[in-house]
Design a protein that fits this description.
The protein is built from 16 helices and 16 strands. It is of the alpha/beta class. It has 2 domains: 313 residues, Alpha/Beta hydrolase fold, catalytic domain (Rossmann fold, 3-Layer(aba) Sandwich), CATH 3.40.50; 176 residues, Alpha/Beta hydrolase fold, catalytic domain (Rossmann fold). The strands form 3 sheets. The protein has an 11-stranded mixed β-sheet, with helices on both faces. It is globular and about 70 Å long.
């Protein structure tokens, strides 16, 4: 009878499972992923565990230079991941114009061995299924890093997200195309290695993020500038199907060829640029190029833009969206009031002459729509053009195409806060990138003279971003209502010391630019 009771008890224990099992392993004590075990650092005061420098692909060096990212070599033991990896190979980052140190990559280390990512998680164990946010840096596809201070993920993790920053190859290391590279590729494509790095990081997330308490079925990608262009490319690419579920693009997009980062050309164009690059370095083969040092390649300049390679991008982004072939996911898209591009404004008479060069046979139509009777009018329109020609028009066209060919909502914004500046600094207004420390609640990373109103704006904006990453809608009780944008409801959230949803700004100019670039 004693043995029967013991057997019955054992059977009951097996059925109930969790009632007699050990507690789930705490993430702060380390995580086991597909390639090995990693340890991070746990902050008792915040409850956030941080892992820095986790490899998601093999180092793209030697024979792997200019190849699609390859699998990581599994490791034994526990890899300590408490320090950022090297940033991608690039010119030494130095502050310039409005971009002070907290907006740019650390000066060192820089290396081709850069394919690592960083994770901030609030989860205690792997059962929590938190929303996941993957941030992609800007830098014109020629610079940037997942270690930029204003991209720090702690504050967003404190608000409930598993937050990730990634590195990807930039410049010639990330975007060289060449006939030999195309021939050796199993995908019959070359170039776009930096974008393929981003896809590989997303595959890593899909495979591993559950171990950090994240939900692989609830992944938002976000980025600013070249990171926003990247987001648009990733939303368009067939390689990301099932890997992404929402997207945020801050100041960038590639649905129109109105900017160099959006009109890299086709594979033949890229290959011709690659052959020219090799010739200028005095070599005639990829083998010889791979034998060059990273410093020699960097000094050679070269090509740094995405192309329609037939693999990552089978067609242009605009064609993919026009055909409704993109990932049909909710998006937040927008731009800043004073992006800071377009050069110094000139008086009305001089600008009228520029208009003829800028718009050709559309110049008369422009001047009829936007009369330049005073210098003040000319200065204002030039500031608008500086923000819209590269960034605003991409957001506007993305919104139109998504409403026409997809079902998911589009939420638009314009960031309008004139960012505080310290004594001796220049007032650049709501400049390019200035929204990032607000959107990710990272004003603490910058020494600017922030006000209480700035901290409230950062809290509000980051709440919207977290809500969107959680459920595909930025709205929540207690926040100003943010309407989705459609061609019949041209609305945008205006982020300023007082934030509210109102009419999309500069609609007349956006419609003019859409007609210009679409035709």
């Amino acid at each position: 009878m004693k043995n029967v009771r013991a057997f019955m008890f054992l059977g009951l224990a097996l059925i109930l499972g969790g009632c007699t099992s050990q507690p789930a392993k705490q993430i702060k004590d380390g995580v086991t992923i597909a390639d090995g075990s990693v340890s991070g650092s746990f902050d008792e005061s915040t409850g956030i565990t941080t892992f820095k420098g986790i490899p998601f692909a093999a180092p793209p060096v030697g024979d792997l230079r200019w190849k699609a990212p390859q699998p990581v070599e599994p490791w034994e033991g526990v890899k300590e991941c408490t320090e950022f990896s090297a940033s991608a190979m690039q010119a030494t980052p130095v502050p310039f114009m409005m971009w002070t140190q907290e907006y740019i990559a650390p000066k060192e280390p820089l290396s081709e061995d850069c394919l690592y990512l960083n994770v901030w998680t609030p989860a205690k164990d792997a059962t929590e299924k938190r929303p996941v946010f993957v941030y992609i840096y800007g830098g014109g596809f020629s610079s940037g890093s997942g270690a930029v201070p204003i991209y720090d993920g702690e504050e967003m993790a404190k608000k409930g997200l598993v937050f990730i920053t990634i590195n990807y190859r930039v410049g010639t290391f990330g975007f060289l195309a060449h006939p030999e590279l195309t021939a050796e590729s199993p995908n019959h494509a070359s170039g776009n290695y930096g974008l393929l790095d981003q896809v590989e990081a997303l595959k890593w997330v899909n495979k591993n993020i559950a171990a950090f308490g994240g939900d692989p079925d609830n992944v938002t990608i976000g980025g600013q500038s070249a990171g926003a262009f990247s987001v648009n490319y990733l939303v368009a690419s067939p390689l990301t199907k099932g890997l992404i579920h929402r997207a945020i693009a801050e100041s960038g997009g590639a649905v129109l060829s109105s900017n160099a980062l959006a009109r890299g050309g086709d594979l033949n164009f890229g290959e011709e640029a690659g052959v020219k690059f090799a010739e200028e370095l005095g070599v005639s083969s990829i083998e010889e190029l791979r034998a060059k040092s990273a410093e020699e390649i960097l000094a050679g300049g070269g090509f740094r833009n995405p192309i329609v390679d037939g693999y990552f991008l089978p067609k242009s982004v605009g064609e993919i969206f026009a055909n409704g072939e993109q990932n049909d996911i909710p998006v937040i898209i927008g731009w800043n009031e004073d992006e800071g591009f377009g050069g110094a404004p000139v008086p009305a008479d001089q600008f009228k002459e520029r208009v003829k060069t800028m718009f050709g046979d559309k110049a008369d139509a422009f001047l009829a729509e936007f009369p330049l009777n005073t210098d003040e009018e000319a200065f204002a329109i030039q500031n608008d053009l500086g923000a819209l020609q590269t960034f605003g028009i991409q957001s506007y066209k993305w919104m139109l195409l998504q409403n026409e060919k997809a079902t998911s909502k589009v939420f638009m914004y314009r960031f309008e806060r004139d960012v505080p500046y310290a004594e001796g600094m220049t007032d650049f207004g709501a400049f390019h990138t200035s929204e990032v420390p607000y959107a990710y609640n990272n004003l603490k990373m910058s020494p600017r003279p922030w006000t209480e109103e700035d901290y409230k704006l950062a809290d509000l904006m980051s709440d919207y971003w977290v809500n969107f990453a959680t459920a595909g809608d930025p709205n929540a009780e207690g926040l100003p209502a943010w309407e989705a944008a459609t061609p019949d409801n041209l609305k945008a959230m205006h982020f300023n010391l007082t934030s509210e949803c109102g009419d999309l700004p500069s609609v007349k100019l956006l419609k003019f630019l859409d007609d210009l670039y679409s035709n």
